[in-house]
From TrEMBL:
It is an enzyme of class 2 (transferase). Keywords: Aminopeptidase, Aminotransferase, Hydrolase, Protease, Transferase. InterPro entries: Aminotransferase_I/II_large (IPR004839), DapC_beta/gammaproteobac (IPR019878), LL-DAP_aminotransferase (IPR050881), PyrdxlP-dep_Trfase (IPR015424), PyrdxlP-dep_Trfase_major (IPR015421), PyrdxlP-dep_Trfase_small (IPR015422). Its EC number is 2.6.1.17. The keyword Transferase applies. It comes from Aquincola tertiaricarbonis. It comes from the Bacteria. It holds the Pfam family Aminotran_1_2. Residues 32-391 form the Aminotransferase class I/classII large domain. This is Succinyldiaminopimelate transaminase.
Length: 399
């Protein structure tokens, strides 16, 4: 067996199951989960119709590069959303969800024969980043989130020697779990470091279409264009329909950016066997070409957060994020920063499941930046999320 598999850590949800296996939740209350970030709004009818009307595509082997129409749809969306122009033939690849691409990109980018091969990622983070790095033979360096900057990662924590060994940097903007959006100045800093040390930047932007302010979140390609980097050198952005269009089970997204990186990534994926089903491609074309359902979806989240956030703010340290569908809440002082104890007590007494922040992070630079916080995924309907918030408020008041 591959010895690198032993370096992987259990997924946060598996760790939480182990930490709560002795708990019998309050049977008087129906269970409500704010733990899993799985979109639960209805899938738009236009996507379902496109999916079912293209079943004849099942009789054909798909090309790894995808249907030209799908690549054009993705390029058209990038132009409309970010004002950036990409060559659909050489700078866009469809992928089976951003998770698959985040993992496989590292396998095609990392050269493990170079001493000290390193991947830098934010902390807390989406655990695929760490797993992808370790299974590519690299080490992981973490940039802790900074509470003073709405929990955006502090890239200055990475020293010069580490940057010199870095081959790949994962950026998550809007961030999971914090919802922080990286501003242009920080993109400039990363681009300058990339020019100096030659590493690739992978910008995970799967939450980009769920935001609460008038100005949509800045994207990586958009930042590059603003800074005169129209070739998108050493930059790849990854996005998905899962959150934008409420189709997590469809497993559809795309990757776009540096043509040379994309060429090598396509070569890897051709052997990896990751071509997208023609049926899913047809539905994806319909999704990327329609914006009305995205606007409606965003309004559902805005309504939900507008009702839920004040209830929680009355009892916890929590604020509306820049974007995404998470609240990153501080546990009450009575717990002395023990987010796991808070989650266990809430589950036992009020039958509400939340994800402890310490399970989403690693100890680095002298601390675990997720400790003392919990991630609340507001993915259910408004009434259910509001009931969960009211139970959490009752729990905190009972302490």
């Amino acid at each position: 067996m591959n010895p690198l598999l032993h370096r992987l850590q259990p997924y946060p949800f598996e760790r939480l199951r182990q930490l709560t296996r002795d708990i019998m939740p309050n049977p008087a209350l129906r269970p409500i989960s704010l733990g899993l970030g799985e979109p639960r709004h209805p899938t738009p009818a236009l996507i379902e119709e496109a999916l079912t009307s293209s079943l004849k595509g099942l009789s054909s082997y798909p090309a790894t590069a995808g249907d030209p129409q799908l690549r054009e749809a993705a390029a058209g969306w990038l132009q409309r959303r970010y004002g950036v122009a990409v060559d659909a033939a050489t700078q866009v690849l469809p992928v089976n969800g951003s998770r698959e691409a985040l993992f496989s990109l590292a396998q095609s980018v990392i050269d493990p024969t170079r001493p000290g091969a390193t991947v830098v990622c934010p902390n807390p983070f989406y655990q695929i980043y760490e797993g992808a790095a370790l299974l590519s033979g690299a080490e992981v360096a973490f940039a802790n989130s900074d509470p003073a900057r709405n929990f955006a990662p502090d890239w200055s924590q990475i020293d010069g020697a580490t940057w010199a060994r870095t081959q790949l940097v994962y950026v998550c903007s809007p961030g999971n779990p914090t919802g922080a959006v990286m501003p242009l100045d920080e993109w400039r800093t990363l681009f300058e470091l990339s020019d100096r040390h030659g590493f690739v930047i992978a910008s995970d932007e799967c939450y980009s279409e769920i935001y609460f302010r008038d100005e949509p979140p800045l994207g990586g390609l958009q930042a590059a264009k603003a800074l005169g980097r129209d070739d998108f050198r050493r930059l790849v952005m990854l996005t998905s329909l899962s959150k934008r269009s409420n189709v997590p089970g469809m497993r559809s997204g795309f990757v776009a950016g540096d043509a040379e990186v994309m060429k090598q990534f396509l070569l890897y994926r051709t052997y990896h066997g990751s071509a997208m089903s023609p049926v899913v491609q047809s539905a994806s074309i319909a999704a990327w070409n329609d914006e009305d359902h995205v606007v409606a979806n965003r309004e559902l989240y805005r309504t939900k957060f507008a009702q839920v956030t004040p209830v929680l703010q009355a009892v916890m340290d929590v604020a509306l994020p820049d974007a995404s569908f998470y609240l990153w809440a501080g546990v009450p002082a009575a717990f002395n920063g023990d987010d796991i104890a808070f989650a266990r007590g809430l589950l036992a007494q009020y039958n509400v499941a939340v994800l402890p922040g310490s399970l989403l992070a690693r100890s680095a630079h002298g601390s675990n930046p997720g400790a003392g916080r919990v991630r609340l995924a507001l993915v259910a309907e408004v009434a259910e999320c509001l009931e969960a918030a009211q139970r959490i408020a009752s729990y905190v008041k009972s302490l």
